[in-house]
Write a structure and sequence with these properties.
about 35% helix, Rossmann fold, N-terminal domain of TfIIb, alpha/beta, about 20% strand, 7-stranded mixed beta sheet, 12 strands, 3 domains
């Protein structure tokens, strides 16, 4: 997407158009790039919504936090995938142990930047100062196999119909123990809600996709607190067997999966030979932004 198109899309977003629906109608599907652009244009809107609806945010994040608390133990690592503006994560960690390691990523740099500012105002201070947020995609998570105790999503798989198994396989790959998905449930929706989900390209048949990817559904919980009655949510508690697990949570090259080392303004691997930039403290760990650097 060139600069002119992005400017046009921003104007149409500011005029009130739904960019996700617009790009889906143009492309026939919600591609990763379309999702990135649509959500990047919305950066700040989720923080604004939370600021104006604190009671709803407290109820929703408390309900999800109570579920997560059953599976996140002291000294665990937890990863929020597609974390957006970090609004959900900032709320749910209130329910979790103090001595955990928390990581979060989103496809949109603008949303991570907005989220990092929100975290400093809102998240529990003992976790906020050690949160590791980065920019990445769910199909190329820059972490090692079996390196995260609990992997979670909160409406991050949502716009990815047709890519469910690709993304689930990657979530399962990095998880050591549990994957907890808080996502819309097409099968539990009303006819009006299903029509909306069809139009926006939201996920469906999650139980089937999870089973095909080797996950075992331990529980499926209907969420009581939802922001939109046309988007009912369930929480899938999934047990995974990722094979040998690793205790390290250092970044990995999303192309070669070699360990990355931090340098001045970038991350680099002497085995993968790609460099990844850091913008305002946020590592950009996407394959399309890899820079060839064979001599470090």
């Amino acid at each position: 997407m060139n600069e002119l198109l992005l400017n046009e899309l921003r104007a149409r977003y500011e005029a009130g158009e739904n960019i996700t629906a617009l790009l889906k109608a143009r492309d026939g599907t919600n591609s990763a790039k379309a999702i990135e652009v649509a959500y990047d244009l919305q950066a700040g809107s989720y923080v604004d919504f939370v600021s104006n609806n604190m009671d709803d945010w407290n109820r929703y994040t408390s309900e999800l936090g109570d579920i997560l608390r059953r599976f996140v133990n002291p000294l665990d690592s937890m990863l929020d995938c597609g974390a957006g503006e970090l609004t959900t994560l900032s709320g749910v960690v209130r329910s979790l142990p103090a001595d955990i390691q928390v990581l979060a990523f989103d496809i949109s740099l603008s949303r991570i930047r907005v989220g990092n500012a929100f975290v400093q105002r809102t998240m529990r201070s003992d976790l906020a100062h050690k949160l590791r947020s980065f920019c990445a995609t769910m199909e190329h998570i820059p972490l090692a196999d079996g390196s995260i105790d609990v992997v979670m999503t909160a409406h991050a798989l949502e716009p990815n119909r047709g890519r469910e198994e690709l993304l689930l396989a990657e979530l399962f790959r990095v998880s050591r123990r549990h994957v907890i998905l808080c996502e819309p449930s097409y099968e539990d929706n009303s006819p009006e809600g299903k029509e909306r989900m069809d139009r926006l390209g939201y996920v469906r048949n999650m139980d089937e996709h999870i089973a095909k990817c080797g996950g075992v559904i331990a529980e499926k919980i209907r969420m009581d607190n939802v922001m939109n009655p046309l988007n009912p949510s369930c929480c899938w508690i999934i047990e995974v067997d990722s094979g040998p697990s690793r205790s390290e949570t250092d970044y990995r090259c999303p192309i070669s999966r070699a360990r990355l080392r931090k340098r001045e303004g970038y991350y680099w691997s002497d085995k993968g030979l790609y460099a990844y930039p850091v913008i305002e403290g946020v590592p950009i760990l996407k394959p399309e932004y890899a820079i060839v650097l064979t001599h470090g």
